[in-house]
User: Fold this.
Amino acid sequence: MAAPSLVEQVREIPLESILSHHGLAPRREGATVRYKSDQFNVVTGKNGLWFDNAASVGGRGAIDLILHMKFGVQPRLASDRQFRDAINWLATFEPGTGVTNTGGVMTASSQPPLPKESFASQAARLAIRDDARWPLARSYLLHSRNLPADLVDHLHQAGDIYATFSHERPEQTGVCFVHRNLDDDARGATVRNIGIRSSSFSIGEKQAAWFGIGDPAGAKRAVLVEAPIDAISYAALKRPEATIILSVSGSHATRPVLEAAHAGRWELAIGFDNDRPGHAGWKHCHENYALLYPDDPQPSRTLPAGKDWNDDLRAAHRRSQGRGL
Assistant:
């Protein structure tokens, strides 16, 4: 039998060793184990599967995990060089729990967090602005997603949406939705690749910076949705006044967005998808807000009729077309 390759060897390094090396302590939750810090919220399962709820990124095995935690890129978007760097890092890694058991309490060793790739560096590789591709991106948003032209054009002129490509796949056109913090600084982005197989991923900050529609300073209400296209769809369907609509890039309301709602005295509504992850995200948000701010008015749940708000918008568009025949 041939000896396992270096890739095979490092891929089998226990995930708990890597997570403990990063200072995360385990907490068992049924069939899964959660490792949580201010930066990560990783759940591990069977067969080397893992998912970071804080970043809405998942994968399988040690290589994928290091690509995410050390290099700050989604495993499927990693360049050949990053893949090799991850293997080389793991090849010199000495697995150890990094966790001590003190009086029956598991405590992670104190390790400084490894630096993540900056938003500017990620954008320079994965979200390169290309205005020549904007007509194609705009057509996708208007015709495939039925988003209103006036709102799309306004967001584009404001610099919140633009067309992109990446060094890894220059033939693929993407739409970049900029994440901004409450000071209106661009700190991250959601990128949706368009084509036969569309897909999306986040780069940079998503904990305390979001794609948003509306003025945070003048808002009395905030609605949290999962994706930027849902935020635009909700705005088109509801046209709410004195409301900010925030895409949190997943079905998890992070602590910074709950803190922002409390500080802004926003009436908070959770508009996550009408599916199992969306319902679970609503439940966790409600529980977390009640723990943080028990004296505040508690969040409410607002549900799309379909799976998400863009499904509702497209259904309304089809009904409108049917009446016009």
The first helix runs from residue 6 to 11. Residues 97-114 have pLDDT under 50 and may be disordered. The chain has eleven helices and 17 strands.
